[in-house]
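Private note to self, pasted from the team thread so I don't lose it. Backbone tokens:
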């Protein structure tokens, strides 16, 4: 009876540790998760807030959990912000040597919710003694850079209608539900275009029955239809993640 009780306690402990809500963390062996668990500080990120990581050597990292979504943005010469990459529960923001350590970049919270905050130096120490963690972080860094490069190519080569659909699909993947917390103004800012352009595009998508615009929200009605009018960049990013860090990128719409 005592043995059964011990097994039950171990099962509960394992289940608790693995319910971080972050895909990267939940891919780790239990022993590596336990190495990190005591270092986490649970936080709630408010939609629209900005994360300040400081200089090129970030003092902390943020693991978005569940449907929390962050946007890494870069400032233009006229002080406008354009999105470089989007991350959700598949990744981590603020890694030393990652894109966000460069000047003129910032993380903004697109979809608020839970996250885990951790000292960057302690994460580095843990990775030094946990090969599985180091492998995941290295693969994720590469995938994040690839995502940024894909976004740059997309901005240069594809029409704004296609880029808008790609942006909605990326958010839909990470939110995991049809209703996206995205205003037309925020969508225009992310793509670096005028709001009137986005208003026209969203109206066209509504006419096709693909989305429905609500106040401060865009509702995805037809995921497959949205994919059909998007460019290939969304699928390319998902395929790259699957190759570099299998299992991290969320399945379509989920």
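Design output:
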């Amino acid at each position: 009876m005592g043995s059964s009780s011990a097994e039950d306690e171990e099962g509960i402990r394992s289940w608790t540790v693995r319910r971080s809500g972050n895909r990267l963390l939940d891919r780790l062996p239990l022993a590596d998760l336990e190495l990190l668990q005591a270092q986490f500080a649970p936080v709630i990120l408010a939609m629209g807030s900005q994360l300040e990581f400081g200089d090129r050597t970030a003092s902390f990292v943020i693991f978005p959990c569940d449907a929390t979504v962050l946007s890494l943005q870069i400032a233009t010469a006229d002080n406008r912000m354009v999105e470089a990459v989007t991350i959700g529960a598949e990744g981590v923001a603020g890694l030393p040597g990652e894109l966000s350590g460069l000047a003129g970049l910032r993380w903004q919270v697109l979809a608020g919710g839970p996250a885990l905050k951790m000292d960057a130096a302690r994460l580095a120490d843990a990775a030094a003694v946990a090969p599985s963690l180091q492998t995941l972080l290295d693969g994720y860094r590469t995938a994040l850079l690839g995502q940024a490069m894909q976004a740059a190519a997309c901005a240069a080569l594809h029409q704004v209608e296609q880029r808008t659909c790609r942006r909605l699909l990326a958010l839909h993947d990470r939110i995991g539900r049809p209703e996206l917390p995205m205003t037309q103004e925020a969508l225009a800012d992310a793509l670096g275009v005028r709001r009137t352009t986005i208003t026209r595009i969203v109206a066209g998508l509504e006419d096709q029955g693909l989305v429905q615009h609500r106040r401060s929200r865009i509702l995805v009605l037809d995921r497959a239809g949205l994919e059909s009018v998007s460019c290939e960049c969304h699928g390319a990013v998902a395929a790259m993640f699957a190759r570099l860090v299998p299992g991290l990128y969320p399945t379509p719409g989920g």
